[in-house]
Amino acid sequence: QVQVALSGGGLVQPGGSLRLSCAHTGSPFSIDSIGWYRQAPGKQREWVATGESTGRTFYADSVKGRFTISRDNTKNLVYLQMNGLKPEDTAVYYCATNQAGRYSWGQGTQVTVSS
Question: Do residues 70 and 56 lie in contact, with contact meaning Cβ atoms separated by under 8 Å?
């Protein structure tokens, strides 16, 4: 079972930036994809972005052009760079690894965008 740990949340003003880090155990080459999700208060969890082992990335329309996935395979880290943050980006963020259809979730990290 892959272990996943997420860090990097916090409070930021509108228009600001944050970078979330998703650390996972296991070989990066055994991870098919890593997905990012978020859940705002009173709302269902929603998909934000996915980074595949092939290098392809996919983003929800709401974050496209503002959020970027990158990875450092030497450190088993995947990053979600979030720029141009908006109050509606406020949520608990999660990352999850997909290994041949088996998903491993990290604990959530709070991102609050407020002036």
Answer: no
Largest Cα–Cα distance of the chain, in whole Å? 42
**In whole angstroms, what is the distance from residue 78 CA to residue 56 CA?**
13
Please indicate whether residue 89 or residue 31 has the higher confidence score (pLDDT).
Answer: 89
**Distance (Å, whole) CA 43 – CA 67:** 21
Residue 37 phi, psi dihedral angles, 5° rounding:
-140, 165
What does 76-90 look like in DSSP terms, one character per residue? TEEEEEE-S--GGG-
Integer Cα distance of 86 and 1 in angstroms: 35
In the prediction, which pLDDT does 73 show?
80
| Average pLDDT of the chain, as a whole number | 93
d(CA 55, CA 34): 11
3-state helix, strand, coil in the chain (%, to 5): 5, 55, 40
